[in-house]
Amino acid sequence: MSYTAETLQLLAPDGTLRYSDETDRFRDRVDALDETTLREFYRHMAVTRRFDIEAGNLQRQGQLALWIPSIGQEAAQVGSGFAARAHDHIFPAYREHAVGRLRGLDLTRIIAMLRGLTHGGWNPADTGNFHLYTLVIGSQALHATGYAMGVRFDGLVGTGDPERDTAVLVYFGDGATSQGDVNEAYVFAQSYQTPQVFFLQNNHWAISVPVSVQSRTPLFRRPAGFGIPSVQIDGNDVLVSYAATAESLDAARSGEGPRFIEALTYRMGAHTTSDDPTKYRTNDEVAYWQERDPISRYETFLTARGVDAAFFEEVRQEGEDLAADARRQTLAMEPPPADSMFRHVYSDEHPLMAEQAEWLARYEASFEEQA
Predict the structure, then answer these.
(1) What's the distance, Cα to Cα, between the start and end of the chain in Å?
(2) Is 43 exposed, middle or buried (0-12, 13-18, 19+ CB in 10 A)?
(3) CB 3.0–4.6 Å: which of 9, 23, 67, 319 could bond 50 by disulfide?
(4) Does the keyword field hold Cell division (predicted)?
């Protein structure tokens, strides 16, 4: 399933900016983007991709159990991530590396998690309200909806104060739309008119199941059946990703209820490093999406605006530095103390946890006695 007649797009695959009757409403938002922000779109996309490649290499070299690549989906993530305000809350799935970095997440925290060194990764209060990765498919949609219900109950919607009005942005993939949790989230979101945006990154493959098998119609039409306004965008176009998400978040914050965005993009790599996409994808399909690469498309756009080669070289070097630093940090990571597994299970001290920790200490000591 590729683009449809209803797909909103600003940047064509050749990098030219084109408005239509359907997208002219985004003109003011795009025109308001200054040169620094336009360059930052590119910087975050390109640098995150370089990190992504390095993390995949580290996994292949045995340095972490698994890696989840996001290569090809950078425009959907960076555009939507820039549209969120600092006090908005973001609930990711497990592939939103670019959004996490944008919100202040040290990407090596993801490596530590997938290396098995943490219980969940990070405290959202320290990462710009970027909540934890969720490996249970689609469950974050309910987490986000519950949080958004709380935002409404707290009266942080429709006040007209941009410093108070809050929205919730939740990411998930096309495979998650087949889960009951996501559809239940639609019900509660519409019933309670939650201030949230459902952002579907349709990368066309739920591991090895194509989206054409999951749905005979475009996925953005499903939420409409729940009464949630929805749009379909070119997810490889960072400008329309930004503009459509900003529009939807503004509506949610103002009290107009939930919104839904289907961003058509493509997972260029494997689902995870445990997967072999050559078993189920054709070379022609991959080539089609390579021609629509979000970073090269946007680079062409910036070049036409007069951005010189020095900027792109600066970004390339920043990506190399980040990759090298991530490798250094990964190789220096040490296993956590064994008793850390008993921390944070309960908010207060708990006798069962104390008993289990004591048992483990005795068990490990028994090996030293035998030696």
Answers:
(1) 62
(2) middle
(3) 319
(4) no
| Sign of the CA dihedral running 336, 338, 341, 343 | negative
Reduce the DSSP state of residue 214 to 3 states and report it. Answer: helix
Q: Which two tokens stand for residue 178?
A: 């087949």
Instruction: Work out the burial of residue 107: count CB atoms within 10 Å of its CB; fewer than 13 is exposed, 13-18 middle, 19 or more buried.
Output: buried
Q: What is the CATH number of domain 7-336?
A: 3.40.50.970
| E strand spans, the chain | 7-8, 89-91, 168-173, 196-202, 205-206, 209-210, 230-234, 259-264
Where the chain has pLDDT below 50, the residues are: none
Per DSSP, the residues of 256-298 read ---EEEEEE----S-SSTT--GGGT--HHHHHHHHTT-HHHHH
Report which of 185, 74, 66, 98 is spatially closest to residue 137, judged by C-alpha positions: 185
d(CA 225, CA 222): 5
DSSP β-bridge partners for residue 232: 7, 262
Max CA distance (Å), the chain: 78
- Token reading at 361: 């200490």
Domains of the chain: which residue ranges?
Answer: 7-336, 339-370
Q: Measured between alpha carbons, how far is 307 from 312 in angstroms, rounded to an integer?
A: 8
Q: Say which amino acid occupies 232.
A: Q
With the CA atoms of 337, 341, 345 and 351 taken in that order, what torsion angle do they form, in degrees rounded to the nearest 10? -80
Query: Coil, helix or strand for 369?
Result: helix
DSSP H or E segment with residue 31:
helix 27-31
Amino acid at residue number 142 = L
Task: State the pTM of this model.
Answer: 0.95
- What tokens appear for 206 in the block? 């739920």
Q: Hey, what are 122's tokens?
A: 């990070």
What is the three-class DSSP state of 91? Answer: strand
Closest among 250, 138, 237, 256 to 194, alpha carbons compared: 256
Quick check: 208 and 280 in contact, CB under 8 A? Answer: yes
- Contact between 75 and 300 under an 8 Å Cβ cutoff? The reply is no
